[in-house]
# Entry
Amino acid sequence: DAGVTQSPTHLIKTRGQQVTLRCSPKSGHDTVSWYQQALGQGPQFIFQYYEEEERQRGNFPDRFSGHQFPNYSSELNVNALLLGDSALYLCASSLWGADYEQYFGPGTRLTVT
Amino acid sequence: GQQLNQSPQSMFIQEGEDVSMNCTSSSIFNTWLWYKQDPGEGPVLLIALYKAGELTSNGRLTAQFGITRKDSFLNISASIPSDVGIYFCAGKETSGSRLTFGEGTQLTVNP
# Structure
């Protein structure tokens, strides 16, 4: 039973560039949430996708956008990267209606220089 | 927005000792979750709590959902070296799916 997978593992970008991160949910799950984890802090909720729509959004600017595909996989896009966007980006999958248990992937470490 | 205060920030203990950590919130949650995160990895779900007053165990781990729904604690009994890591509490609001995380407790176990 495949768990949550994310790609790439690490990424280095320059300020002003754009980045796309990818997530495949755990088998049987249909809901994907994205979190940003700065060094030494707990994860912060970015947004959640279900049925290819954004269902809930945290306190993040419009530079952060996402997409969910028919196979439930998801992408996180960040435009106009800032140094402060450097963080571990975590994807969590769950089952809609039972989304109190969210299972996390290993994350993508983004460094903005 | 909601904030979770998690304490202690760090703990240094000897193998075999028991550990206790807790989280308090300014608002009510209807679900409390406890996660463990190893370096370079995503958080791994340890225990989920769904009812006020609920006490749940998972091996050497025991967690409780506070009666006021604004707090939770996690106990680890007879700690072992592989318990080393960062432990996070997380709360889920009554409406919506967002998880709000605490700042984490860094646990070090000396053999």
